Amino acid sequence: MPARNHKQWTANPPLKDGEWINSRIYSDPEIAQEENEKIFKNMWVPVCHESELPAPYDFRTTSIANENIIICRGPDNEVRAFLNVCPHRGMLIERRPSGSFMEGQASGNPKRITCMFHAWQFDMKGNCVYVAREKEGYQDRLCKEQVGLRRLRCEVKFGGFVWINLNDNPSVSLEDWAGEPFECLRKTLDEEPLEVFHYHKAIIDTNYKLWHDTNSEFYHDFMHYHNRVTGFNDAYFARKNEAFDHGHVVVGTFEVNYENYEGFESRADLSFPHLPPNQWYMVDLFPGFNFNLRGSALRCDTVTPLGPDKVLIEFRGLGLKSDSPEDRMTRIKHHNSIWGPFGRNLHEDLIGVAGQGTTMRPDTEPRRILHGRQENQTIHDENGMRHYYEEWGRWMDRSPIAPDMPFSDRDDGSQVVNAE
Ligand code: FES
Ligand SMILES: [Fe+2]
Fold first, then answer.
1. Percent of the chain scoring above 90 in pLDDT
2. Which of 70, 88, 93, 122 to mutate to test the pocket of ligand 1 (most atoms within 8 A of CB)?
């Protein structure tokens, strides 16, 4: 078919519902805001790894759906999470990205979370333990026992990641939500403690869903020279792409031939526990968390949407806590040479999603995005994305092909989308 005029360009493709979506879901500010309310405020989010707060009184700060959060390790070694918001007048209590409360500060007492504004203090369980001039100001009308921090649901699970849910009554437990997709890696990740050896973050001009799409679909391996020369054999094309409840996908394993890429080496000697040599598993959790184990190094990506066309991505690399210094250096090299900021693959993925973000800015005309490859649920099948957008439609009660239509009416959506 020759190049198309506007009417042809905006016509629906000859594919079934679910095999394409409307690009408005990547560019509409109203939809982006609604995703925070409906999805991210009700979802289990892996905010960090326990090795990033190794000692009692260590803390990290982060945010989910614009809510500021503090995570800290208590003297009892429990990891807990709270809103990083002072119950007095709403000050952001802790402004550092990470640190320790063990030592005192100019505006903070040792072993206390101190709000520098009016010096209220909290312990590692979120109890308020000190209100400055409490009796003088509040007499018997308000006491410190009534003004603790807002505690959040927090669990350490699946290889030591710290998971938070802003909803006190989540629709599903963390185990029921992600246990099945993690089954393929459970023994491997839980055999011994892991440790973060790499962290970087980037703000990318694209929609967070497009980053997750790129992590979960492998058709774009045509873009990755490294993956083409180390894979693209029969075992690669037989690699399974399996959908799980709750919108998750697992990309099954195969043996990567690292030696086929000049300068690279087998990763067999440093395989994670219970993992055959040079295998490669990937767990992609809705709505945008990715666990990618290439034999000797684990990568985890988490997304924080900052608007329809902006996403904060945090990248972590992990090895075994028991690593010798020499093994750790080798793992870091394995990780960084593919996934570091100057690695072989990462920048290629970023170019891909930034290119999509450029054509899908707010106010660009919505168009059709195709997810219709059917290859028996193997590596280049796009079932992962079809499955993901089913789940997205359920949480948002919007049809991915006609976003103004309730998800339950989606079968008729193809009629409506042309009328937009
Ligand atoms: S706002 Fe925190 S003590 Fe006043
Ligand atoms: Fe990629």
1. 95
2. 88
Instruction: Report the pLDDT value the prediction gives residue 22, as an integer from 0 to 100.
Output: 97
Task: List, for residues 295-337, the tens digit of each pLDDT value.
Answer: 999 999 999 999 999 999 999 999 999 999 999 999 999 999 9
Fold equal for 45-154 and 180-396: no
Cβ of residue 130 lying under 6 Å from some atom of ligand 1:
no
Q: Whose CA is nearest to atom 3 of ligand 1?
A: 118
Residues in contact with 48: Cβ distance below 8 Å, sequence separation at least 6, in sequence order:
60, 62, 71, 161, 162
Contact 301, 215 (CB under 8 A): yes
The domain 180-396 belongs to what CATH superfamily?
Answer: Naphthalene 1,2-dioxygenase Alpha Subunit; Chain A, domain 1 (3.90.380.10)
Q: Which residues pair with 155 in a beta bridge?
A: 163
Q: Which fold has domain 45-154?
A: Rieske Iron-sulfur Protein (2.102.10)
Spell out the domain ranges in the chain.
Answer: 45-154, 180-396
**CB of 86 closer than 6 A to ligand 1?**
yes
Q: pTM for the complete prediction?
A: 0.95
Regarding the beta carbon of 118 and ligand 1, being less than 6 Å apart is answered yes
Residues with CB under 5 A from ligand 2 (ion): 349
In the chain, the largest separation of any two C-alpha atoms, in whole Å, equals 81
Q: Which residues pair with 48 in a beta bridge?
A: 162
Residue 417 scores a pLDDT above 90: no
